[in-house]
């Protein structure tokens, strides 16, 4: 029983691929959160700073391990020698928010493609879907396979006949809305990082926190020249780094934004053709 619980607690994302990740399930515990909040206030925010540097410690302190199916927080760990951790919240979507009625019968598929993970990812009759967003890719919880899977892809199990037979006449407007909600927008959006956010990230770097303690130490020992030298060098270093990161962010945003405007012709099921202006990232 214990081995099964451990197995349900851990899984692999993108198994065998270059971006393979381990994923661990955790559930937030209110008592633990309250204790962490009290400790944060008693330490004047030092604990919060430590949690910022070590996201896995934050999860371990606030949450209890649980099966991935019940998790509201997951911890991702790279499978390379560095084993870096990332914390992600499990987000819930409810298809009941759509403007048209959806069948709550578990036997009826939501989308025409019988191989689609969407049919296994929506829990009926609640019409609930759970997912995590990792590196701009959405992974939904597959209740049949009991693991997180990429969504929005054309399944490899589809034959050419399946593709033409299922998608040849296009998708109904209802299925389009379901896919749009479950898979998210079909776009690559690169946000320009605000300067204040870049500045905070740099200031909270462990190196500059150490420099702050060094400055306090030099001032306490009345070595003002050393303290001012450290302050000037740190401010200069932070300013140059923020400027460089901001420039890179703007360039990447403009690179992704560069596109060719095209007209897309979409054939509907009833023989109607619709024309849309679309963008194609270059």
From TrEMBL:
<dbReference type="GO" id="GO:0019829">
    <property type="term" value="F:ATPase-coupled monoatomic cation transmembrane transporter activity"/>
</dbReference>
<dbReference type="Pfam" id="PF00690">
    <property type="entry name" value="Cation_ATPase_N"/>
</dbReference>
<keyword id="KW-1133">Transmembrane helix</keyword>
<keyword id="KW-0067">ATP-binding</keyword>
<dbReference type="InterPro" id="IPR004014">
    <property type="entry name" value="ATPase_P-typ_cation-transptr_N"/>
</dbReference>
<dbReference type="GO" id="GO:0140358">
    <property type="term" value="F:P-type transmembrane transporter activity"/>
</dbReference>
<keyword id="KW-0472">Membrane</keyword>
<dbReference type="GO" id="GO:0046872">
    <property type="term" value="F:metal ion binding"/>
</dbReference>
<feature type="domain" description="Cation-transporting P-type ATPase N-terminal">
    <location>
        <begin position="163"/>
        <end position="223"/>
    </location>
</feature>
<feature type="transmembrane region" description="Helical">
    <location>
        <begin position="31"/>
        <end position="53"/>
    </location>
</feature>
<keyword id="KW-1278">Translocase</keyword>
<dbReference type="InterPro" id="IPR047819">
    <property type="entry name" value="P5A-ATPase_N"/>
</dbReference>
<keyword id="KW-0547">Nucleotide-binding</keyword>
<dbReference type="GO" id="GO:0015203">
    <property type="term" value="F:polyamine transmembrane transporter activity"/>
</dbReference>
<dbReference type="Pfam" id="PF12409">
    <property type="entry name" value="P5-ATPase"/>
</dbReference>
<dbReference type="GO" id="GO:0006874">
    <property type="term" value="P:intracellular calcium ion homeostasis"/>
</dbReference>
<dbReference type="GO" id="GO:0005524">
    <property type="term" value="F:ATP binding"/>
</dbReference>
<keyword id="KW-0460">Magnesium</keyword>
<dbReference type="InterPro" id="IPR023298">
    <property type="entry name" value="ATPase_P-typ_TM_dom_sf"/>
</dbReference>
<keyword id="KW-0479">Metal-binding</keyword>
<dbReference type="GO" id="GO:0031902">
    <property type="term" value="C:late endosome membrane"/>
</dbReference>
<keyword id="KW-0812">Transmembrane</keyword>
<dbReference type="InterPro" id="IPR006544">
    <property type="entry name" value="P-type_TPase_V"/>
</dbReference>
<comment type="similarity">
    <text>Belongs to the cation transport ATPase (P-type) (TC 3.A.3) family. Type V subfamily.</text>
</comment>
<protein>
    <recommendedName>
        <fullName>Cation-transporting ATPase</fullName>
        <ecNumber>7.2.2.-</ecNumber>
    </recommendedName>
</protein>
């Amino acid at each position: 029983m214990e081995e099964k619980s451990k197995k349900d607690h851990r899984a692999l994302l993108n198994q065998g691929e270059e971006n393979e990740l381990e994923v661990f399930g955790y559930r937030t515990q209110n008592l633990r959160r309250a204790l962490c909040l009290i400790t944060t206030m008693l330490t004047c925010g030092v604990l919060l700073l430590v949690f910022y540097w070590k996201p896995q410690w934050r999860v371990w302190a606030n949450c209890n391990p649980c099966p991935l199916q019940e998790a509201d927080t997951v911890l991702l760990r790279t499978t390379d020698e560095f084993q870096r951790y990332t914390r992600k919240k499990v987000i819930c979507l409810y298809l009941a928010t759509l403007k048209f009625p959806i069948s709550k019968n578990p036997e009826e598929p939501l989308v025409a493609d019988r191989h689609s993970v969407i049919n296994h990812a929506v829990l009926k009759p609640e019409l609930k879907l759970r997912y995590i967003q990792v590196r701009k890719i959405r992974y939904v919880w597959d209740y049949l396979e009991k693991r997180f899977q990429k969504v929005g892809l054309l399944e490899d199990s589809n034959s050419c006949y399946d593709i033409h037979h299922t998608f040849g006449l296009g998708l109904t407007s209802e299925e389009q809305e379901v896919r749009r909600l479950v898979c998210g927008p079909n776009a690559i959006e690169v946000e320009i990082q605000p300067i204040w956010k870049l500045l905070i990230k740099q200031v909270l770097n462990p190196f500059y926190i150490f420099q702050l303690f060094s400055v306090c130490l030099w001032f306490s020992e009345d070595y003002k020249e050393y303290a001012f030298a450290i302050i000037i060098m740190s401010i200069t270093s932070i300013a140059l780094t923020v400027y460089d990161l901001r420039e890179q962010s703007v360039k990447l945003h403009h690179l992704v934004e560069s596109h060719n405007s095209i007209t897309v012709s979409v054939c509907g099921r009833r023989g109607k053709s619709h024309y849309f202006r679309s963008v194609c990232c270059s």
